[in-house]
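Q: For a teaching session next week I want to show students how multiple molecules come together into a single three-dimensional assembly. I've collected the sequence lines for a complex. Could you give me the predicted structure tokens for the whole thing so I can convert them for display?
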Amino acid sequence: MAAFSRRHVLMGGAAALAASALRISPVSAADDALYAAAKKEGALNLYWGSYEQKTIEEIRDAFKAKYPGIEVSLLRQASQTIFTRLRLEIQNDAVQCDSIGTTNLLHYKDLQKLGAIQPFKPTNINMVPEAFRNIDPENTYHVGAISLTTINQSTSVTAPPASWTALLDAPWANQITTGSPAFSGDVASWVVAIRKKYGDDFLRAFAKQKPKVGQSNVDTVTDILSGERKVGSAAPFSYSLTQQAAGNPIGVTVPSDDAILNLGLTAVPTKAPHPNAGKLFTDFLYSVEVSNILAKNFWPTLRTDVPWAEGRTLESIKWYRNPVDNLAAEVAEGIAKWKEIVG
Amino acid sequence: MASSRSVSAARSASVGYRCHHAFRLIVLVILLAVLALLIVQPLGWIVFNSFHDDVTGQWTLRNYVQIFTPTSLWAPLFNSLVLATAVAVISTLLGVPLAWLVARTDMPMRGFVRLFTMAAFVTPSFIGALGWILLAAPNSGWLNVGWRALSGADWPLLSIYSMIGTIFVCSIYTVPYTFTLVSSALEEMPVELEDAATTLGSGVVKTMFSVTIPLVMPAVLVGFILSFIQGMTLFGVPAFLLTPSGTLVVTTKLAEFYQLFPPALYMSAAYCMPLIAITGMLFYARRCILGRRQFTTVGGKGRAGRKIRLKGWRLPALAFALIVPVTAVVLPYIAIVLVSLSRAWGLGPIPSNLTLHWYRWAIFENAETQRAIVNSLLYAGGAASFCMIIGILVAYIVERKLLRGAGLIAALVTIPIIIPGIVLSVGFFSAYTRQPLTLYGTATIIIAAFVATFLPIAYSQAGSILKGISPDLERAARSVGATEARTFASITAPLMRGGLVAGWLLVFIPIMRELSVAIFLVSPRTNVMTTLIYNYKDGGNYEAVCAASALLLFATLIVVLLARFVTEGAAYRRRNAASLGAVP
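A: Of course. Below is the structure for the complete assembly, covering every listed component.
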């Protein structure tokens, strides 16, 4: 029995490998029924803030290629804008969105409270890393993106700070650039995590380093590439790697005291005009095709069987994710403390 | 027989009278209905929202109590007032002389200065801020690097991340408002008045201050107010340049409200109400300053195109006139174009890093960009034209006092411009996603939002042109039997033409670069350039941002040149007609 199952696993693995090499994945029976229902609906409106324009456009195009007969519209805006818009649509009973994808868990807590997102279990969810499989016991929202917050640095820096605490060392005074937690969800979750790890003392010492505070964490890359600052704190891992691959003089350091992992999430609104198409898209997110696109664009993949770019995996990186309970209050407190201490 | 003739004449006169009044009534009813839909309804929603609680959705006065209590909400308002006042003053000090030099003197390179001042107008302010970050960031800014290399100093010459830096960048991108308004007023003004002053021994400068500037005062004041409003409502520049110092202004504070859970939309609506009061005061002040003075400069005589000779002052004047073109366009666009031509902009402008990829991508490869360019041009063109039609009608009714309570209409059409776009966007969302007007997701809702937002500019421009046209000409037409509509079409409108093209551009260009009012209204099919450029910025793709910005500038400049061509053609024909009519 054991040998039988091992052989099957091996065969399955080989098939998956071959399929992933060809960038196709078999359509399951459940998928077939959902596809038929989605095709009947005929359209899919994506409201996405996770992933930048290029990556999400590639995902949309791959979906269109795999599921012809569904007209796909993609609205890509900043996560909070997308969320505000869906909320406005809900308030005015004019929901257009079939699949929302944003970078902030609090959006989904809020939508759940309003009864505005519907429960369902994506068929491929078992391919997702186990830690992110059942993030909502009610199944109203699921993982949509994995985002890591790390340190980035100019290639002119030969010995970059190896940890968050190393950023507080003398050489990095006046050299740090970072985003603002009041504007960026990723920076806000970094502040929550750092306060949990080191308390407000860290923020006090950090303020003494006189960091340059921009809006988004993307601004860290801008400051490093322009030469304005040398090291970025609370920096975007994937985006920095993309810029490095494009040939820009930037590098990434995963801090020894943990990269901060922030989950992007996705849901299908209760009043979605094309709910089956929305669910089909969620299923598609966990396909090999999408994970390949993610790896190509330096994003962590959503499947355990597709490694990230440059052979990285979730296991190869030390990461920390903020506990979910009480997150809203902690974010608000983190922002207030930041304003008080860092400015 | 005679009596029956007089009866029929009286009857036809009374029919004519009734027809005339019926026509006037129809126009008024349509106009009021349009204004109700465009302005009253969305504004009503904003006011309605401001009295609701963001969390519970219940009626409350809490938002207003919150605005007027904690100091944290006063500080941004104060900072915004400082910023807006400084921007208005600097824009006026730069813009008025600039307009005079270009419109009325023989300064060299006038065409270049005009075109590049308009190019400054076309540039979305966050792009300008980006360009200036590349130029004047304390450590890496190219100007500072150059300064350190030349002087050996270890401190930066300029620091863009400051209130002064922000005022500077906001001002150079706001000067075009004053410039366009005042230069168009100057071009419509007869030189006889200046000649009279010169004949009486007044020098160029004295003539300028005693004759020219007072005559274009309505345009100067509108320019000042629009610049002030621009300083209050700009988001991009303070977001980039003031965030590092932790200084908040109204718009960045609003952005914080939108980041809350749930987003404090109703609180934001309440936060805008003091802005309406401030703008109200400005327009009231304008009325007090202008009072009952007459500004009629178009009296039916032809205008000569003769220029004032600057003699030895030509070069110093040119140096002054180049401030805006160089600081707002030449320098930042050198930076922007260099980035747009880079494979990876962090490597700098070295030959191996140069590519046309981003332009190829934006123009030929990316369907989203193609659609957005077309949408931007169509919506801005449509909205600007519609805006001008309503603006002229309202201005005509107000200036010629055709209706009791016309002042109220004037106040109404002026309000939207002061409300930051992001709040207006929510107002439009609420107004047009319900029965019977479900326009959400259509191009109409975006055009309507643009029209409402920029109607104050159209109205102000039309108003200041009308102030300059003597009603005597219209009365002459009326006295020989022309109806109000005919008089307007054959006398008033042609006289306004030159100024109207300037007004159309004053609306068209800000729409092209407007970002926030469209933010909750665009759909994938109705995306515009600025929302797309902001997305690329959000994703950190600066090469694409810069290429798209350069294309946006290019597309808008073509429209500006076309419009200029049309006006100059008209002015040329008019001048010819005038000289033909002159006594030899």
